[in-house]
Write a structure and sequence with these properties.
Largest sheet: 2 strands, antiparallel
Helix content: over 70%
Number of strands: 4
Strand content: under 5%
Distance between the termini: 138 Å
Structural class: mainly alpha
Shape: elongated
Number of helices: 12
Order of helices and strands: EEHEEHHHHHHHHHHH
Strand order of the largest sheet: 1-2
Radius of gyration: 72 Å
């Protein structure tokens, strides 16, 4: 069974209302009884009202009913009249809203149809684009396949060429193997001949080894004799050169090692009297001599000789336990170096230690320059 809805208020319309004329259909639109009453209440008796032929009796009934309601309204209280007016206004608002919604629905349908048409156009364009891309892809794949076939043909040709080259190489290798096989046979023949004469060769080899051993022994003895003669000759030449090259004061150097302190003191004095700066190298060790007079004489003579090589030993002598040795040493240091660090030979030990440190610091900085000059 078909269900009808009012096109104005969207309420369902019973078939009974359509059959008895309370609900009507105009221009293909269904209007319920309530909307029909609201629309015809003001013009029920007007001669211009239009009713369908099937609504004749129902129209008379609605007219009578309307007249009765009007009469009842006239006799009703003002509150009831106000309620009827409000109901009428509400119904009119509902009808207006229904008309507005119906109009908007048509507009919405048109928009939806436009969107569907646009979607169809876009889909058609996408299909064309896909077909174009597919055709391009097919062409590209065809080209790649052709390139692959060409590459495969080239690779096949290269493999065939490589196979031919390998076969040629194998043939050459076979020829070389055959050649070497012949050579090996020749060598085997030679070896068999050598083996037959192996005993004679062994005897000859043993004799040669013994002879070689004898020759080596004789050579070693000759070499030892020659080396001994060369050493003796070099020793003789060295003694001769030493005697010829030593200075006149050289014998005094040996006296510095004498057990007699007087001899050592005299040797120091004699070496200083030579005025030869070379004696300073032999005198520096005498600053450690156990005899105080030897140490004093050595410190003084190193200063007289302006011996730069004696500066470190003179600085060490500043720590000598005897003040007289310290005094002779500092006097010589001042004369040789031209420096004065105010060292007091008779001062306190702590003060002397500071001055000795100053002397050593200066020497570390100036040694290269003084010794180089």
């Amino acid at each position: 069974m078909k269900i009808y809805f009012c096109d104005l208020c969207n309420e369902s319309v019973p078939h009974g209302d359509l059959e008895n004329g309370r609900a009507v259909m105009r221009n293909g639109r269904v209007i319920c009884s309530a909307c029909e009453v609201a629309m015809t209440s003001g013009s029920a008796t007007s001669p211009g009202s239009t009713e369908s032929p099937s609504e004749g009796g129902a129209g008379v009934e609605r007219t009578n009913a309307t007249s009765g309601r009007q009469r009842s309204v006239r006799g009703a209280s003002p509150v009831a009249a106000m309620a009827v007016a409000l109901a009428s206004f509400s119904l009119l608002g509902t009808l207006a809203m229904g008309a507005f919604l119906f109009t908007n629905t048509d507009e919405h349908l048109r928009l939806v149809e436009d969107e569907i048409a646009d979607a169809r156009r876009e889909a058609l364009e996408d299909d064309r684009s896909i077909e174009s891309r597919f055709a391009d892809e097919v062409r590209r794949t065809t080209d790649e396949l052709a390139d692959a076939r060409a590459s495969l043909a080239d690779l096949r040709a290269r493999l065939e060429e490589s196979a031919r080259s390998r076969n040629d190489s194998l043939a050459r290798v076979r020829e070389d193997i055959l050649e070497w096989d012949g050579r090996l046979r020749d060598v085997e023949g030679v070896l068999s001949t050598v083996e037959r004469h192996g005993i004679e060769l062994g005897q000859i080899r043993d004799s040669a080894a013994n002879l070689r051993t004898d020759i080596v022994l004789v050579g070693e003895r000759v070499k030892e004799q020659r080396d001994r003669q060369e050493e003796q000759q070099k020793a003789a030449e060295s003694v001769q050169k030493s005697e010829d090259s030593q200075p006149a004061w050289w014998p005094l150097v040996g006296e510095l090692s004498s057990q007699n302190s007087g001899v050592r003191w005299q040797a120091v004095q004699s070496l200083g009297a030579t005025k030869d700066g070379a004696v300073a190298t032999h005198l520096t060790a005498m600053l450690k001599d156990p005899d105080i007079f030897v140490r004093m004489a050595t410190a003084r003579i190193l200063g007289d000789l302006q011996a730069v090589v004696g500066i470190p030993a003179l600085i060490d002598a500043l720590e000598d336990p005897e003040a007289s040795v310290r005094e002779a040493s500092v006097v010589s240091l001042r004369g040789v170096t031209g420096q004065n660090f105010r060292f007091d030979p008779g001062g306190k030990g702590s003060e002397r230690a500071k001055r000795v440190k100053a002397w050593r610091t200066w020497w570390e900085k100036s040694a290269d320059d003084l010794l180089g000059s």
